[in-house]
Amino acid sequence: MSAVLLITAGTQVVPSLDLPTVTPVSPAAVLPGAPFDARIEANLDRVRSALSDAAAEPARTYQRILDQGRQLLHFDPDANLGRGSWAELVGEFGEHTETVGILVPGSTAYILDHNFDKYYQRASHLVEESNGRLALVVWADGTYPKGWLRGAMSRYHEPLGEALARFSHDLRREISDQLGPGHGVSLLVAGHSFGGAVVGAAERYGLEADAVLHIASAGVGHVRDPYDYPDPTRPRYSMTAPGDLISFVQGLPTPPGLGHGPSPDSFRCVVTLPTGRLPSNPDYLDESGDALGDRAGERIGGVSSHSEVFIHRSDAWRQIYRFFIGSAPPPPRCPEPGESAPVKARVLPLAVPRVVTAYQCRAGGGLRPAGRHRWVGA
Hints:
The chain has 378 residues and is α/β, with parallel strands linked by helices. It has helices spanning 2-9, 36-52, 56-68, 79-82, 114-130, 147-151, 154-179, 194-204, 305-308, 315-324, 358-364, and strands spanning 71-76, 85-90, 99-104, 134-140, 186-192, 211-215, 236-239, 271-272. This is Alpha/beta hydrolase.
């Protein structure tokens, strides 16, 4: 009830609560994992085993996994009350690989849900665009909440964050094992919706990443400042379309057990990226496979924008793509708390000179008749 009253009142007062103590995961604390090739083969065997006695709905999904040759790094059909959990590699590590990314889905990330194929499609579009420069891991290895209401509970993102931090060290080691020392490949991590809160929690546990992106994210985790993270100066980016319903819950003060911390869009030292417009070609398809038609070129916003940011070739999609290939604009240095922050440059609209007639000048000695003066272009 207290959370409802705070939200209704519109207060922005953050309760002064002690931050829970966590122990960052170090590479030495992570047991060496099996090579990814071996994991993929073992998980395909698990899929075949699960298929042998599965009911009709899961059987269709498991058969599709085998038919498509999906590269599952984790497969647990019993997790999430039988709806399953997974992690999968999209693309491959090769001589042309420049970046490897992790994409963390939002709530209801189950194998037996449309999100399983939706995030695979999203990752595939990004990887295909890169021509071998990018490989992605869609990571949903754990207990996920179902829907927005349960997704507001912080008890879900903390254990997922710790597990993601451990996996990130495993992934970095796999990259080095496959590509050799001095490979120069960047590891970039993004979270969508509730997945952003998972990434924020993972940062507190020592996430291994060269940069982080929050996509319509629920929050940055239980921190008050970048210097609460083990790596405070890591490049961080955020994008939320105007009118996205997630913006109404980002950063709201809530009692313990609810919420995911400050809004990434206003968090100190985070670079916000514009979401822009949908593709201008009306023949381009949305995520449902329907042509954009009259929606082509429209500004991304409103309730549907929470997913529209992933529409292939939209401005928002290109921002996500640029992040994953390491081409996002570098952020300025993040000063320590209390240190004078650099002055931010602001780009002002172009002032168009106003045409003034000789009569207007004579009428009152100014730019407007009857002696009324005003500044033009200020």
